[in-house]
């Protein structure tokens, strides 16, 4: 298939690669990009010549999160008229739906992997990161996460610190904290992740798919998906807070870049550090 917002290639036998292709927007995700990502993953899942799929970002980073640019239509943001909390339910269902695919999906993370970008990575089965990647949820400085994976992957104390500060982890810290499997030098990330995907693809595909399911079924029994879905209601409620409204009004009046710089200025990171 042809996609508008992702590129696909087959860099090795049995390996499909899906590349987010909005580098001029730091791969910020609007509804068309999210739709292309999920469609490309489903296509790979149905292809008998594919055993494992890699998801990565073009340009400087994996993804800066959801596209908050003022002026984008509600439909392009994915915030159409489906009632309160529709966007939050949609994105959480989309990313956790990756767990329901038969074949493993690998996130290859470099540069910034923020907010919605970290949700996409969380939905993948394996996560490999550049050592200097920056992974976090700075959006907690004005709202509540759509997909509240933090406590499940990082444990209560580390999760609490990250959701109360909006600070980011480096790739090395993400591995230490349990968010990612391994970290590699940025310069060799493509090759190192491809080597891991090829290693996974050596397993007979029927066995591989059953083993993926065993892990996800165990997490289901522990309540992971139910907890994530419960969190969407808190996220939807947060859109009615004064802090959230103030940030969105500032973005609309002075532009998103200025609003992000004001948000992160006191912390000395995020947009302030990225420029």
The total beta strand count reads 9
Beta-strand content: 5-15%
Count of domains: 1
The end-to-end span amounts to 36 Å
Fraction of residues in helices?
40-55%
SSE pattern: EEHEHHEEHEEHHEHEHHHHHH
Rg over C-alpha atoms, rounded to the nearest angstrom: 18 Å
Structural overview:
With 275 residues, the chain is α/β, with parallel strands linked by helices. Helices cover 48% and strands 15% of the residues. It has a six-stranded mixed beta sheet, sandwiched between helices. Strands 5-7-8 form a three-stranded mixed beta sheet. A hairpin with a 2-residue loop joins strand 1 (6-12) and strand 2. Helix 3 (86-96) packs antiparallel against helix 10 and helix 11 (242-254) packs across helix 12. The relative contact order is 0.13.
Label this structure with key terms.
275 residues; alpha/beta; 2-enoyl-CoA Hydratase, Chain A, domain 1; six-stranded mixed beta sheet; three-stranded mixed beta sheet; 13 helices; 9 strands; globular
């Amino acid at each position: 298939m042809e996609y508008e917002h992702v590129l696909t290639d087959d860099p090795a036998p049995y390996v499909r690669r899906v590349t987010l292709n909005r580098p001029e927007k730091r791969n910020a995700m609007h509804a068309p990009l999210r739709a292309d990502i999920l469609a490309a993953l489903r296509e790979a899942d149905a292809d008998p010549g594919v055993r494992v799929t890699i998801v990565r970002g073009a340009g400087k980073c994996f993804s800066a999160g959801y596209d908050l640019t003022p002026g984008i239509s509600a439909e392009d943001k994915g915030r159409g008229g489906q009632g309160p909390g529709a966007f939050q339910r949609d994105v959480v269902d989309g990313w956790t739906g990756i767990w329901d695919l038969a074949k493993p999906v690998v996130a290859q993370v470099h540069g910034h992997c923020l907010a919605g970008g970290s949700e996409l990575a969380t939905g993948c089965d394996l996560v490999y990161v550049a050592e200097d990647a920056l992974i976090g949820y700075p959006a907690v400085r004005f709202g509540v996460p759509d997909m509240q994976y933090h406590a499940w992957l990082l444990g209560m104390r580390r999760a609490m610190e990250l959701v109360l500060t909006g600070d980011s982890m480096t790739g090395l810290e993400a591995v230490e904290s349990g968010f990612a499997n391994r970290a590699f030098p940025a310069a060799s990330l493509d090759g190192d992740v491809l080597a891991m995907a090829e290693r996974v693809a050596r397993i007979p595909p029927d066995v591989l798919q059953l083993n993926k399911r065993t892990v996800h079924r165990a997490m289901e029994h522990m309540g992971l998906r139910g907890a994530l879905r419960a969190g969407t209601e808190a996220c939807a409620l947060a859109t009615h807070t004064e802090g959230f409204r103030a940030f969105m009004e500032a973005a609309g009046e002075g532009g998103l870049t200025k609003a992000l710089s004001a948000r992160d200025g006191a912390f000395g990171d995020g947009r302030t550090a990225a420029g």
